[in-house]
Amino acid sequence: MINEMFKDMTGKGSVIREFFTYANKKAAEIGAENIFNFSIGNPSVPVPQEFTDAMVDLLQNSDPVKLHGYSPSLGFDSTRKAVADSLNKRFGMNYTADEIFMTSAAAGAIAHALRCVVKDGDEVITFAPYFPEYVPYVEGTGAKLTIVPADIDTFQINFAELEKALNPNVQAILINSPNNPSGIVYSTETIEKLAKLLYAKQEEFGHDIYLITDEPYREIVFDGTDSPFISSFYDNSICCYSFSKSLSLPGERIGYMAVNPACKDAKLIVLMAGQISRFTGHNCPPSLVQLAIEKVLDMTSDLSIYNKNKDILYKELTRIGYHVVEPGGTFYMFPRSLTPDANEFCWKAAKELNLIIVPGDSFNCPGHFRISYCVPTEQVEKAIPLFEKLYNMYK
Amino acid sequence: MINEMFKDMTGKGSVIREFFTYANKKAAEIGAENIFNFSIGNPSVPVPQEFTDAMVDLLQNSDPVKLHGYSPSLGFDSTRKAVADSLNKRFGMNYTADEIFMTSAAAGAIAHALRCVVKDGDEVITFAPYFPEYVPYVEGTGAKLTIVPADIDTFQINFAELEKALNPNVQAILINSPNNPSGIVYSTETIEKLAKLLYAKQEEFGHDIYLITDEPYREIVFDGTDSPFISSFYDNSICCYSFSKSLSLPGERIGYMAVNPACKDAKLIVLMAGQISRFTGHNCPPSLVQLAIEKVLDMTSDLSIYNKNKDILYKELTRIGYHVVEPGGTFYMFPRSLTPDANEFCWKAAKELNLIIVPGDSFNCPGHFRISYCVPTEQVEKAIPLFEKLYNMYK
Question: Is the ipTM of this complex over 0.85?
Fold first, then answer.
């Protein structure tokens, strides 16, 4: 008999996807140039040529039997060491290859990290607004996901609410900074305060509390933003990284889990991740892409367009009258909607103005909407009058 | 607190890997040419040049933003359609793209297929000898894996034992043909008998029983072997395929799940697989490799060496006096060990003769050993005197 739980889920579409599908349908009718699609977080700048060259070189100049052979289940030693070295050099850490586990991007990293440190019946805390896929990631382990409400004035951590939520059943905290959808980067002050609180609660509860950091936007931080390397503030930290956004490779499914060497079980946790893979049928990332990524670890795509788009949007939207907390990174912005029902607001924008933005409800933060500005700057500029029209419809 | 179940597993190494590690260590000491390593199932022939050319062409001549963008969660429509068309043409089926789900090789396909049709507390039946990873694949769903003992005279299905094992709690049967480790291909007679029995049991138990077929060796079938396309015999069948062996791409993690269109829930099961991925953090295979595989679906590597190696080994081992059931495919052979303790037998071969073979106990079939002959024919020829020496140590 088919599994009813997964069957029931097939009926429930993602709201973001509904807007995306609407945009595509409308584009087919009236032309893509007349649709201002800000719904999806797909990078809009190419991967560095060095990555393409590395891939082609491997394909043309390696023994294909070796090149396409199995990778060890934790990833290639050389790739793991290169990742550790790069993190150490950039962030003053002291990872070794044994603390790195290569994954199919951040989704794979988070799914493994959670299974390492939580089990059926445990509790995981995250903070609104958050990436909707955190729900299945956590539910897949049998643990319960507890949401700490957003501090909508800063989108930093709401510590009063976090303190209320913390209890002995909590085994892990899952954070995302720079944040999708708010674009906010947790400050050094926020991270220090979080670390101090978690150290105290570990003591009080008599067990470890792991900090799982979802960091696909780590490299997309705007000029002047305070952007600490989170793991350097807390021993029991597991950094989940993806090259999807920094190298514009979302389809190639490559990332890693890096367990803080200061965590006493760091090497064990990586070995456990290798075992967990066997249960989910999820082996490590493809051999070829692991070897190619090794060559471009310290590079990024030209990410400056996201900063430029942010500057224009933030300046113009605040001028018009929108309430926006200025993003410190990512390619998202999360203004307040002009009516409490953000869903209605976004459909109005879509249907009356061909302006595709998505409601904050999907991120458990109603009354807001997300703009994904990983688009050509020209599209941003042309959309400003539409945001102004939208504003005037409500004010 | 770390998850004790996965922690405990990190201490338990795979026996096959122990032999493989021993072989590598010894090779470093005395030279690889003096070690006759038949322990691992890594293809030994290159991928067709057409695959490499397709990869390079995509990398050099596509818009990198599009090329490396997200694939839909079920896989690219074009790839899914091409897989369906290829199966239809070759096996007289009528799959559509909607019945195909692209996966990270057979491991990903089986893990998804199982989660679609079984849940916590259900029962899945498989047949000894079997791939040891079936245990975590099934346990990961919460179901129980029941083993039907081998028919060691033929390695076809032991129907008397299967009938005893079937009960209303059984929701799925997991088979592997051509089989690792026996090399046996289930005959048309076997598959017809299995289908008939399962149809009768569905009727008797009043619920569907799914037949999950693990087919990474489907294209490695030797001259004259009867090799039916299993799904054409049973409606509720889910074919789990990998390109790892047929195209010598084990490290690239690419395969699919094809649900028989005759299964009433076929399209729904594929949609469910898309939902299941969200829980395991296991998105679909990389974009690039999906697009490249599309171009070489009807090709294989030159697999003739496996047939040649089988012919030599089967002829010589039977001449020496070993009891071997002749393989119909794969690159494995599964002779009886000359002492009931195959583990002792294989360590003797390794330590006294530098001949690396692995015990059948790992496949739940004691008293046998597996030879992986995906090696140069010269290695097979040079190893024959060693197999003869080993025989003489016991007779």
Answer: yes
